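User: Some background: our group keeps a shared notebook of sequences we're curious about, and every so often someone picks one and asks for a predicted structure to add to the entry. Today it's my turn. The entry only has the sequence so far, pasted here. Could you supply the structure so I can complete it?
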Amino acid sequence: MRKLVAVAAAVISAAGFCAAGQPPVQNEVRAAITERIRDLNLTQAQEAAIAGIREEYAPRVDEAVWQLRTVVKEEIDAARAVLTPEQKAKLDVMKEERKEWRTQGVADRIAHLKDLDLTDDEITKLADIRKEYRPKIIKSLESLKGILTPEQARLREDLLKAGKPRAEVITALKLTDDQKAKVEVVGAEVRTLLREQIEKMRAVLTPEQQDKIAAMKDERRERVRDRMVLAILHFDDLNLTEQQKAKIQSIRAEYRPRVEQAGDNLRAIVREELSAIVTELRA
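Assistant: Of course. Here's the predicted structure to add to the notebook entry:
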């Protein structure tokens, strides 16, 4: 039963991701299901039955993902077309900043979600995991200092103290190709540590708590499904004119119903496939 719950959580999470306004890739939804099903120790008969179910639903899932991806891209492209080249450049910096710290945000949310009804033992274990990984992450980030020249190091400190986004700081440093390569190595190391931290945290949780996280992620993504266009509208550094704001508001009003309909359609198909798989596993 625990593994059935894990399959369900993976499917719902994948569907939520693709409905979130991200540019989804068609294989992402199905890959999430495949990864979990491999852990179920199925009989040959079950494998054959589930393979048939997945083959039946594959075209429908792929078509639904493509429809959602298309309408989201159309909305974002329409909003970007309102911007000047300078505003687009600033927006790209903002996107990189969000991407850089998204993973750490996941770990923090797991540790502090009151809705999970964590036991004292779970809270202690999560705290211990964070204590284990924080020094490792900080040590990796500190290795950046040896990569920069004294001038770059001072500029970095000044920009960070001024509250500049980290991605914007990196751009301002004007790194050489060699420095960029070294920074990328450090970034890869940090991302690996963050992923390990999150996996250990999730392992502490019960299947029901993992279900809650998947459901909360889905709900949160529902609310911010249009976060890219909304971010364009409210990103103060873009200095949008009133005319630009009005145009972007109009674009959102036009595309929101279409994006919501496409997202609802995708989730309905994925859940229908999940229901068919779970029925087969319980038979």
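Suggested note for the entry: Residues 8-26 have pLDDT under 50 and may be disordered. The two ends are 13 Å apart (CA to CA).
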